[in-house]
Structures are given as C-alpha cells and as structure tokens.
Design brief:
The protein is 50% helix and 13% strand. It contains nine helices and six strands.
Length: 181
C-alpha cells in the first residue's frame, strides 16, 4: 500500500501522479489518498477511485486520526513535490517506518537518504527531476525491493525508524559549530 497524505495542490506534484496513475496502480499496489485541496486534484482522485475501486481509495477530507492509521498501515509514502521548503509528512512517515518515495527537493532531500543497495544505506527512495517517468521508475525500484528482497526492505524500515531529526540532535550540531568557531 502506498499512501498520499497531503494538501491536494500543484506544489505536491500530483500532476506527475496523473501522468502515470495506471502504472502506479498495477496488480501489486493499492493507493490510498487522504487530503483536501484544489478541486482538480480532488476530482482526479475521485475519478481514479471510480474506475479502479479495488486499487484506489480517495479520502477527500482531513482526519488526523486516519492520517496516523495510514502512516502505520502503509508500506510507502509518495511525496513527489515540485518544491518542499520543509515537509513534516516524510518525517512522520520515517518515524512510523513507512518508507518515503520522494522527489529530491528542499526538506525532502535534506531528510530522506536515498536507498543505496551497494552500501546498505538509505531511508527511502528518491528521484531528482520533476518527471513522471522518473518518479514511476523510482516507484518500480521500491516495489522491486519490497517484493524481491523483503529482508533488505526491512532494513530500510529499521533505518527510517532510527532516523533522528529531534531538536536534541540539531542543538548538538549547533553547539559543535559554535565550538569550532
């Protein structure tokens, strides 16, 4: 299950999803959307739910309770933002062990370490360019690991849950910086 928990606006890269929706929702994936926003995107996800009811669940409303249930239940979080100054959604996903699939921009690039199979590193899957096919390739790569190497997927989940973006860590870094100056 891939979750999208978001405001439904242009900023969030939802046009990319529209371009490759059939590829995302193939026989192995369920997509669950939670959020409100621009009517264009609300209607887009309602449409996909109507034509693929066994693959798409469009929850066009706000619910903090359901958001937390989705973080806990989903395998991945999709966040292909056009720009993202900070981003809390991916931080919450990391804490829950929901592997982020994100575009490398702003806070997403700063907080989601790309999976590197050769070094055994990474907390999620990333793509650089604002391109639907590059996003689809990244989703496919995540699916390949999920279905083909569950042990490696579980290691990504463990690293994601161990990531620490607390103020304690930031304060220590600032303290170290001041000491070196």
């Amino acid at each position: 299950m891939i979750a999208i928990i978001s405001r439904l606006t242009d900023q969030k890269g939802l046009d990319l999803i529209d371009w490759v929706m059939n590829g995302i929702c193939d026989e192995n994936v369920q997509l669950v959307i939670l959020g409100t926003g621009d009517a264009q995107y609300e209607n887009m996800f309602k449409h996909y739910q109507w034509i693929m009811p066994d693959r798409v669940s469009a929850n066009i409303y706000y619910s903090d309770d359901l958001a937390h249930k989705l973080y806990a239940a989903a395998d991945s979080l999709l966040m292909p933002s056009r720009f993202e100054p900070c981003g809390l959604t991916q931080l919450i996903a990391l804490r829950y062990g929901t592997v982020p699939i994100v575009r490398e921009t702003g806070g997403l690039k700063d907080t989601v370490e790309p999976y590197n199979e050769y070094e055994g590193k990474g907390t999620g899957f990333t793509f650089a360019n604002y391109n639907a096919h590059e996003m689809m390739d990244t989703i496919q790569r995540a699916k390949d690991v999920y279905y083909g190497d569950r042990r490696e997927w579980n290691k990504i989940v463990d690293r994601a849950m161990a990531a620490d973006f607390s103020w304690r860590v930031s304060a220590r870094r600032y303290e170290d910086l001041y000491r070196t100056l």
